[in-house]
């Protein structure tokens, strides 16, 4: 072993001691100066992590945890800011920030709407409104050719309605009925509707000839100036017995005593006094000329009942549909 070798050994020893000293010193420094803090980091994806770090600058903490802030991301607090224990670093997308701004703008718009609302004006107005009358029909059984008739004319009513009207920029936007008062009640129109079932006269036609002009009986002479109508009647015969009439007075509905080959009973569609000529009976004593003098419960407008002297004659006549000329007075 030479002197050079000895020197080298002692240098190594010194270096070794120095390294140990520095190492110990380092631990001491770290133990006394290094302060570890808990920091919560919330990423833009809302992922949360808590890290233990000795760093205090936001940028350093992120770098230490290999978190790269993208161009469209914003860090709170600022990258250059210092942070202390239990603080939070939040990374958000710039678009999310913009959205918040947009929300703010929207709320301003709402305020503007509210301001506009203040310009809404209200007015109380009263209008007179027509209450239309109703038409009511009343059924009635009438005689003959009576038409439906107005029994009572309808009159419209009037009501006064009070509205609250809202205008925005002079344009009506709402109309609320507040109250209404009837000034005049409407009057119903009443129409009497005649039921024609019993009184209708069907199957009539105007005659082209007038048998009265060529006949010689008194009845025919009395209706020479009248144009007859022709229709078919279901004819039968009756007498004054109780079987035929339910009474036996022989007095007709007209008040006159019934006469054979003269009196007929007809439906209410034919007035008392109507003269009827039945060509099929022109060989009879009256030449076929009759006068409506009677009524009967079973006699509708399509029936004629011919008065006869005896019940036997009435039964013998039976029932025949015959063409008749009708002369109405
Ligand atoms: Zn009889």
Plain-language structure description:
The protein is of the alpha+beta class. The protein has three domains: 38-110, Ubiquitin-like (UB roll), CATH 3.10.20; 121-196, Single Sheet (Resuscitation-promoting factor rpfb fold), CATH 2.20.230.10; 201-327, RlpA-like domain (Barwin-like endoglucanases, Beta Barrel). It contains seven helices and 17 strands. It has helices spanning 3-33, 58-64, 94-117, 196-199, 218-222, 242-245, 311-317, and strands at 37-42, 48-53, 73-76, 87-93, 121-131, 135-140, 149-152, 157-168, 171-184, 189-194, 205-206, 229-238, 263-266, 275-277, 289-294, 303-307, 319-327. It has a six-stranded mixed barrel. It has a four-stranded mixed beta sheet with strand order 2-1-4-3. A hairpin with a 5-residue loop joins strand 1 (37-42) and strand 2 (48-53). The longest helix has 31 residues, at 3-33. It starts with a helix and ends with a strand. The model has no long low-confidence stretch (mean pLDDT 82). Zinc ion binds next to helix 6 and helix 7. The site of zinc ion has 7 residues, from helix 6 and helix 7.
How are the secondary structure elements laid out?
Blueprint: H1 3-33, E1 37-42, E2 48-53, H2 58-64, E3 73-76, E4 87-93, H3 94-117, E5 121-131, E6 135-140, E7 149-152, E8 157-168, E9 171-184, E10 189-194, H4 196-199, E11 205-206, H5 218-222, E12 229-238, H6 242-245, E13 263-266, E14 275-277, E15 289-294, E16 303-307, H7 311-317, E17 319-327
Parallel strand pairs: 1-4, 6-10, 12-16, 13-15
Antiparallel strand pairs: 1-2, 3-4, 5-8, 7-10, 8-9, 11-12, 12-17, 13-16, 14-15, 14-17
The structure holds zinc ion.
């Amino acid at each position: 072993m030479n002197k050079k070798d000895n020197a080298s050994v002692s240098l190594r020893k010194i270096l070794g001691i120095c390294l140990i000293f520095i190492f110990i010193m380092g631990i001491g420094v770290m133990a006394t100066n290094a302060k570890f803090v808990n920091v919560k980091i919330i990423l833009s994806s809302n992922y949360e992590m808590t890290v233990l770090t000795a760093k205090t600058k936001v940028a350093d903490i992120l770098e230490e945890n290999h978190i790269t802030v993208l161009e469209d991301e914003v860090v709170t607090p600022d990258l250059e800011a210092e942070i202390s224990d239990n603080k939070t670093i939040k990374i958000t997308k710039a678009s999310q920030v913009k959205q918040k701004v947009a929300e703010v703008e929207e709320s301003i718009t709402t305020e503007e709407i509210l301001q506009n609302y203040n310009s809404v004006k209200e007015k109380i107005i009263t209008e007179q409104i027509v209450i239309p009358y109703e038409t009511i029909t009343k059924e009635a059984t009438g005689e003959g050719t009576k038409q439906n008739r107005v029994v009572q004319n309808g009159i419209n009513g009037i009501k006064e309605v009070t509205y609250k009207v809202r205008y925005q920029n002079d344009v009506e936007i709402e109309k609320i009925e507040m109250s209404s008062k009837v000034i005049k009640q409407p009057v119903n129109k009443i129409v009497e509707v005649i039921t024609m079932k019993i009184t209708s006269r069907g199957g009539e036609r105007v005659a082209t000839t007038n048998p009265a002009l060529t006949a010689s009986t008194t009845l025919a002479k009395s209706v020479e100036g009248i144009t007859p109508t022709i229709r078919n009647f279901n004819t039968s015969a009756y007498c004054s017995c109780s079987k035929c009439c339910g009474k036996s007075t022989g007095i007709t509905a007209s008040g006159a005593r019934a006469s054979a080959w003269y009196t007929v009973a007809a439906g209410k569609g034919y007035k008392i006094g109507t003269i009827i000529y039945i060509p099929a009976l022109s060989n009879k004593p009256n030449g076929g000329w009759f006068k409506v003098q009677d009524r009967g419960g079973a006699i509708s407008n399509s029936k004629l009942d011919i008065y006869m002297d005896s019940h036997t004659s009435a039964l013998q006549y039976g029932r025949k549909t015959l063409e008749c000329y009708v002369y109405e007075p």
